[in-house]
Amino acid sequence: MRFVPALSSFANDTAAQTAWATLKVLFQQYEGYSFYKHPLLPTSTFDAPDLAILARDHAPVVVVIIKYNLADITHTSDESWTANGQTFDSPLLQLDDFVIGLDAMLKRERTLRGIKPTVGVLSFPLISRNDAEVLLKKHRDIMATTPILICAGEGYERVLHPSPMAEDVWAMAKSVFQGASVLNRTTAPLSETNTFDKLGPAIHALEREISLFDDEQVQVAIQMAPGPQRIRGLAGTERPSF
């Protein structure tokens, strides 16, 4: 499992660090990716999920963390919450947006329609289960999906939902989750002995192999570094190097 923090704010996000430390243990034996603030899953207010996880042979997982004590939360409504004097989009609706958005991304590909639906997780690391249940009771009916609640002192074992994937299904799921463009999904991989005497067929054949980012490309494509970055590549090949 490879972890990619898309934003540098992860370094100061203690709640997300704690959640990932626990989830990392659960998922460490599985191939896959976990993103902090996945940029491909924003809501209408441009928020992104605290954690989004795709592990082989498991349903995808999206985590929204409520980083407040119960006393900090002074108002909740179907549309918004207020905590520490700041009003923000309802985390229930945000989680709904993320779950529905990720499922829609994956299910656009016919080969991925057999994967189990995305598991939505609302994490309350500073609030007891009883208090969280009371807090959410009057708002649950606004959600189109049913989240798993993880409250203070609880583990994340319930987020593991096995969903076996064949090799081609896993490759496609990774490609969609990474944001990579699969340019040809039906053609078998090229043989190393293939040769071309014209540029057009050669480029077309090259494109057929560009189905997944490698780990370094994922890091560069997803992360938003605080400083300037340079991306170089041979013009016309659509094969940048970083």
Summarize this structure as a short list of keywords or feature phrases.
alpha/beta; 3-stranded antiparallel beta sheet; 6 helices; 6-stranded mixed beta sheet; 242 residues; 2 domains; ECO RI Endonuclease, Chain A; 11 strands
Summarize the structure.
The protein has helices at 14-27, 91-107, 129-136, 167-178, 199-208, 215-222, and strands spanning 2-5, 32-36, 51-55, 61-65, 73-76, 80-83, 86-89, 119-124, 148-151, 232-233, 240-241. The protein is an alpha/beta fold. The longest helix is centred in the middle third of the chain and has 17 residues, at 91-107.
Description of the structure:
With 242 residues, this protein is of the alpha/beta class. The protein has two domains: 2-159, ECO RI Endonuclease, Chain A (3-Layer(aba) Sandwich); 183-241, no CATH class. The chain is 29% helix and 19% strand. It contains six helices and eleven strands. The protein has helices at 14-27, 91-107, 129-136, 167-178, 199-208, 215-222, and strands at 2-5, 32-36, 51-55, 61-65, 73-76, 80-83, 86-89, 119-124, 148-151, 232-233, 240-241. Strands 1-2-3-4-8-9 form a six-stranded mixed beta sheet, sandwiched between helices. Strands 5-6-7 form a three-stranded antiparallel beta sheet. A two-stranded antiparallel sheet has the order 10-11. Strand 5 and strand 6 (80-83) form a beta hairpin. The longest helix has 17 residues, at 91-107. The two termini are 22 Å apart. 27% of the residues are buried.
